[in-house]
Each structure stands twice: as C-alpha cells, then as structure tokens.
Amino acid sequence: MTNLSSPLVSTGNAGLDAILGGGLPANRLYLLEGAPGSGKTTLSLQFLLEGARRGERALYITLSETYDELAVVAASHGWDIKAFDVFELESAADVLGGGTEQSILHPWEMELGETIRLIQQEVERVKPSRIVFDSLSEMRLLAQDSLRYRRQVLALKQFFGRRNATVILVDDMTGGEKGADAHLHSLCHGVITLERLTLDFGAARRRLQVQKLRGVDFVAGYHDLAIRKGGLEIWPRLTASSHHSPFNGEPTPSGVAALDRLLGGGPLRGTCTLVTGPAGTGKTTIALQYIDAACRRGERCTIYEFDERIGTLMARAKAFNLDLDKHIEDGLLVIEQIDPAELSPGEFSWRVRQQVAERRAGMIVIDSLNGYLAAMPQEQHLILQMHELLSYLSQQGLVTFLINPQSGLLGSMATNLNISYVADAVLLLRFFEAEGRIRKAISVLKNRGGMHEDCIRELRIDSQGLRVGDSLSQFKGVLTGTPEYIGAASPLLESRDDDRRGG
C-alpha cells in the first residue's frame, strides 16, 4: 500500500493536470465515467502514453474494444498503441474455450471468475505502473448480480493496491444501478466524470467534472473540453481571484480629445467599458478608435469578432482613416473571427487568457455580447461567466470594451442582456432626428473610475473620422429619438461634403 504522501502522476493532459493541481496521486484507484462518445477512451490513451513517454510500463485491459479498434482511435490522433501493452478479452469463448458446458455452476459464474484470474495473471506478467481497465459495464454483465459485481470491484481494488500501480477504471454508465454507482464512487480514490451535451444547433458540447479526489484541493465545477486531433483539449474553469497582478490605473486616450473628455481622459486601465446602442450608431468604430490609438502607442490589442466579418471590419476602418492592416503587420493587433456555434464559453475564456499571458495584450474588444450569448448553451450562466472573465481582465490591468447592440432605432430601445452593472463605464449611443436628418448622440451614463461629463453630445462618423460635437443643450428629448429644438442657431456638426453642397 502507498503512504499518505503519494507523488503526483501526470495524466498526460495539461488542462486536466491544472484542474487536479498537478496530476493524480500515484498508486491509487480512480474512476473515469461518462456516456459513450464523451472522450473516455481518448483520455485513457493519453494517460498511458504519458507513462510510456516517461519510461513506465503501461497496460490497457479492454473487455469492450478490440486491439484493432483501439489502434484506429489512437491513429486518428497520431498515436501508436505499441508504446504500451494491450490485453483484450473479446468474448467469453476466448476466455473459457469449450469449458462452458457444465451443470454445477452457472456459466456467468465461471466467466467472471476466469476473466478476473486472467487479468491478474497479465498484471503479474507485465508489472505495469499505469493501468486502464475498460470497461466496468462488461464486468456488470458477467456478474449478473449487483452484490457479486461489487465484491469483484473491491477484490480488484485490493489486488491493484498491492502492486504500486495507478489504475483508472472506465465506466460508460450503461446498465448500472444508482446504488451500485454510489458504492463504486466510495471505493475509488477519485472520480472524474465526462459529459456530452447535444444542443439544438451547432456542435456537441463536452465538459468534465472532478466529483471527488481525496486529499487534493482541485478546481471544482464543470470545465469545457473538446476532442481534437492530438487528444482532449480541456479548458479549466476561470477563477479570477487566483490571477491578480498589480497595475497602474491610468487613463487610456483615444486620440480624439472631445471623446476623451467624456470619460475624464479615457477609460482607466483595469476597467471595462460597455458601448451600447442600436445598430449603426458607431459602437464598433468607437472601440476601433481606442484600438488604433493603443497600437500607435505600441500596445498589443485583440479584437474578438462574433458578428461582423473581418474583411468588412477592415474595409470600414480604412474608410474612417484607421489603418488596422499596419497594426496587424507589426504584430500589435490580432483579430479573431469567432463562430458561436462551434465555440464553448470555456474555450473562449481560455483564448482570452492566452492573449493576456502569451502576448501581454493590453486592450481587448468583444464584439458583440449578442454573439457571446449565442455561444452559451445555458443563458442563465452568461452573467456569471462574463463577470468572472471581466474580473480576470481587470485584475490583469487590461482595458476591455464590450459592444452591446440594442433593438430598435428611435425612442425606447431594449437589449437581450442586462449586463451594464458589470461594466465600470457605460457609453450610450442614440439616433435622433433633427432638421430632416438622422443624427447620432453620445453620452456617458456612468464611470466608476472617476469624473465624467453628464451632457449629451452629437457624434459624427464620416470620412473625417470620428468627431464629438458640442453639447446638445438647445434640444430637449434627444434620447427619445424625436427631440424638440429650442435654440436660435444650429449647433450641429456638418461634414465637408455637406459644406460643399451648401448643406
């Protein structure tokens, strides 16, 4: 038996090792359970291949799959199962030959006993330090009786426990009783559960949960994962409290003095700014203005584009004299096109963390929250996950912009997501009608980082770039979309093209 200070054994999966705090305590018995297709075989192969890479003997005991089937799964990931031993029992006939014809004992009694005996002989011969037993469902079928099944599992635990081996029992959770599963959980030192979720649209989502691991402070909760060439990609759940670093909360200017004055010099580092308004008011353009200014200062920035195509975004930026191509060529700007139907929230958070940790990004733009919402299979958890992500970015000292589209054009407008409370600053954009034209207004609803203007100003975006005009003090009811003009002269911004036309 192992002592209490067992060393940690790497699972061969960096994400899972991070969740477990470094790996599994050695020489213990673990349960890996999940429905068919959830990734159990792939994770088991990773575990054994890691042992082989470290020069350890590893053994795969399979009651459910043949050697050829395992070889096909391994080959799909670029692996070779010749790196470890495989012991297969394809059928009871292979175990017993013609010895099933007798009348004293039931055939299943002899099948189970002989199967266990052959497994023990193989373990004694190979003397592995890593073992995968796949799967317990076949043992249930051979046992026929739940009590006999539990006794055999306990006997296997005692047998493996005397041989200094780290063992993973695989269970596909078919045909088992709830009480038997609880008993199995109590026998094992740790339990890892894989799940496969089929959504109404898009790719299937998979997730992992460590239900228990004795003596280890693991990261609890669900962690998103995907099966890709090379194995399981597991993204540990983000916990912002464990990623704090000091930063200087200085303002970040946009290069447009009038826009910066709205927020008292610009958003502070370590804060999140929500830019909200209906489609076409210039939300993304405002964020691009800050991105352009940051790149000109030599800062690294990242844009996550959920809605708009990157080509369209680049063309629009160029029309407003924002040269994003140069920033991309200089390695200062990364624009990622996100497909909400294919991306899980856990993977998205992990991508953001990589930009912060590997590229040292200083500014992040998420465009838009509607796209992020579409990536969530359970809408009720969006606020919690977004709050955790924003807290992480804040503690890392980043400036974050969230684009939040609203429905409607004039008058009362609504949003599918009430997330304004998690933002440190809120920029509100509105359409309004005046002098027979549709115009735009900008105002600051709040700024936790300091002082801000409380007036409503006109916003103009054209070939001259982004401009913020004077306060619309000669109007009332601007935010209703149909204001009443009470001034004597027009204070509104006009473009040079309008001036040439006499407009």
UniProtKB/TrEMBL annotation:
InterPro entries: AAA+_ATPase, Circadian_clock_KaiC-rel, KaiC, KaiC-like_dom, KaiC_dom, P-loop_NTPase. Its EC number is 2.7.11.1. It is an enzyme of class 2 (transferase). Gene3D superfamilies: P-loop containing nucleotide triphosphate hydrolases. Pfam families: ATPase (PF06745). Residues 7-248, 250-482 form the KaiC domain. Keywords: Hydrolase, Kinase, Phosphoprotein, Repeat, Transferase. This is non-specific serine/threonine protein kinase.
